Amino acid sequence: MKKISGPAKYGAMDGFSLQGLRAMLFDFEGTLVPFEWNITEAVSEVYEMLGGFGIPAERLQGRSYSALLTEGSAMALEYGHSPQEVRRRIEKIYDGYDEDALRRWSLRPGARALLDRVKEKGVKTGLVTNVGREGILKGLAKLSLEKSFEAVVTRNDVRIPKPSGEGIGRALEILQVKRDEAAHVGDSPDDIRAARDAGVSVILFRPAGVREAADFGAVKPDFEINSFEAWVASL
């Protein structure tokens, strides 16, 4: 897929074409639906749980909620505990916050039309998310998106969630699509890093006023889109 990007700013979606693209992968929270996950409370609860295992929270201060899942469980052995059991405990906490967010999830304007248009063009669709499998399947059912994706990869399906590119790579394996024939649509620096790690093009979805470019620092996408509705009209 040909990528269009300027030297000083993100590429414009005006020049984006589905030609040569065989798969488009989407993030879920923050992208297809507004971000509803309570990260602050989830991280606090994980710190408390790790403390019960004797794992000091200060050693993990500043880690993202996704990093806590992998790093917290990796530290378990050092303190005489099973990494698998600690990871299971963290997953259980996160499952609860998936359920909480589920009650508020609603599709962004134009998201369903975009998914339909992409599929109409013969491009495969996949979902790669740090939400757990049980929560995302309930979310897709709630939003009537059960048949919208040919591959769904969650945090339960990978060893390391985003910003690792493992989930994107797994989705491409399921779809049987090469990396240079795919793009990932997401809203966060972790989405961009995951796409870069996996070697696919990255489209940043950033609704007007949600984030300023400075928040992303040196992490740059190939394209940026501010409205799914406008994107659909251009395809």
What this model shows, in words?
This protein has 235 residues and is of the alpha/beta class. The protein has helices at residues 39-52, 65-75, 83-102, 111-120, 133-142, 166-175, 189-198, 228-234; strands spanning 11-12, 23-26, 124-128, 151-153, 182-186, 201-205, 223-225. Helix 3 packs parallel to helix 5 (133-142). The longest helix has 20 residues, at 83-102. The protein starts with 10 loop residues before the first strand and ends with a helix.
> Roughly what percent helix?
25-40%
Q: List how many beta strands DSSP finds.
A: 7
Low-pLDDT residue intervals, each spanning 5 or more residues:
1-12
Largest sheet: 7 strands, parallel
Evaluate the radius of gyration: 18 Å
Broad structural category: alpha/beta
Into which percentage range does the β-strand content fall?
5-15%
Query: How many separate helices?
Result: 8
If strands are numbered along the chain, what order do they take across the biggest sheet?
1-7-6-5-2-3-4
What order do the helices and strands follow? Answer: EEHHHHEHEHEHEEH
Mean pLDDT: 89
First and last CA, distance: 15 Å
Basic shape = globular
